[in-house]
Every structure is written in structure tokens, then in C-alpha cells.
Amino acid sequence: MTPFSDDQIETALTGLPGWSQEGEAIVKSYEFADFDAAIAFINRASGCINELDHHPEWTNVYNRVDIRLLSHDAGGVTNRDVQLARILERLAAAS
Ligand SMILES: C[C@H](O)[C@H](O)[C@H]1CNC2=NC(N)=NC(=O)C2=N1
């Protein structure tokens, strides 16, 4: 699968506030009320991630979850990353 070009990524990101391109990935840092809220977000997201069979690179420090999305098999951003970013946006907004 061919990854998105920089232009395609830029277009996709117009609908994803707070997301930006970083090298071959798209990234966003979410901040929650506290550690429990951050972990609840991760747990809620895990179901959707399994369904999609597409996995984020993410780290948690206290109330923050830093997320990096790319399609490892394609070596860059694909529609699967954009789809996952949209899902994470919805889940984070409901936190
Ligand atoms: C077989 C299975 O579809 C693959 O290993 C999936 C799993 N989740 C994945 N997630 C991500 N981000 N990139 C991949 O290439 C990928 N591959």
C-alpha cells in the first residue's frame, strides 16, 4: 500500500484539529483530567483498535496520552491512520 503524500496528509488533517504531521506519522497529545481519565481513554480505545486491527504508538505520562499514528506495513500515513484518528477524537471528546 502506498502511503499518503504530504499534500494528502495535509488535506486529511483539516478535519482533525490538533493533529499534525511529524515525519512519516501524524501525532497528537491529549490531556485528560487526571491519570484515571487517561487510562479510561486508553481502555475505551483498545476495543476500537482491535476491531480496526490497526494499532497506535502511544505513551502515557500521568494525565497525558501522546499518540503517533502510521501504517508500519506501508511506511507512512494511510487511510487507516486517518480513520483511527477520527475514532480517537470521538472517544477523547466523550471523556
Ligand atoms: C496482520 C495485521 O493486520 C498487521 O500486523 C497490522 C496490525 N496493526 C498495525 N498497526 C499499524 N499501525 N501498522 C501496521 O502495519 C499494522 N499491521
TrEMBL record:
Molecular-function GO term, any one: 4-alpha-hydroxytetrahydrobiopterin dehydratase activity
Annotated catalysed reactions: (4aS,6R)-4a-hydroxy-L-erythro-5,6,7,8-tetrahydrobiopterin = (6R)-L-erythro-6,7-dihydrobiopterin + H2O
Enzyme class: lyase
InterPro entries (UniProt xref): PCD_sf, Pterin_deHydtase
UniProt keywords, alphabetically: Lyase
EC number: 4.2.1.96
One Pfam family from the record: Pterin_4a
Protein family membership: Belongs to the pterin-4-alpha-carbinolamine dehydratase family.
Protein name as catalogued: Putative pterin-4-alpha-carbinolamine dehydratase
Organism expressing this protein natively: Aeromicrobium wangtongii
Upper taxonomic lineage: Bacteria, Bacillati, Actinomycetota, Actinomycetes, Propionibacteriales
